[in-house]
């Protein structure tokens, strides 16, 4: 019964949750980081859209998701093995988090897109490193 009521509220969101659960079930650490990057970029782009269309509840939810993902990425950095790269990523994540929080106070989608573009570049580099 609870499952049916969740489906009736937002079937698209339910599908995304099921899809994400399926992709994370057997993923290793590097694959999970890749998924976090993808989910972060998606959250930021939706926040940008929501800000511009005055969908404040959606913007708030996506900002919350984006900041949680940024915290998770930062918390899981391995400074011993990652050295300067980990330190640089920690700064990038902290700066991105500040930019997202600052942008959450306005109606401009551009700052969210700027952070998404930056994270997308990191995600592309991560994907290439994993493939090598």
Automatic annotation (TrEMBL):
<keyword id="KW-0143">Chaperone</keyword>
<comment type="similarity">
    <text>Belongs to the FliS family.</text>
</comment>
<keyword id="KW-0969">Cilium</keyword>
<keyword id="KW-1005">Bacterial flagellum biogenesis</keyword>
<dbReference type="InterPro" id="IPR003713">
    <property type="entry name" value="FliS"/>
</dbReference>
<keyword id="KW-0963">Cytoplasm</keyword>
<dbReference type="GO" id="GO:0005829">
    <property type="term" value="C:cytosol"/>
</dbReference>
<protein>
    <submittedName>
        <fullName>Flagellar protein FliS</fullName>
    </submittedName>
</protein>
<dbReference type="Pfam" id="PF02561">
    <property type="entry name" value="FliS"/>
</dbReference>
<dbReference type="GO" id="GO:0071973">
    <property type="term" value="P:bacterial-type flagellum-dependent cell motility"/>
</dbReference>
<keyword id="KW-0282">Flagellum</keyword>
<dbReference type="GO" id="GO:0044780">
    <property type="term" value="P:bacterial-type flagellum assembly"/>
</dbReference>
<dbReference type="InterPro" id="IPR036584">
    <property type="entry name" value="FliS_sf"/>
</dbReference>
<keyword id="KW-0966">Cell projection</keyword>
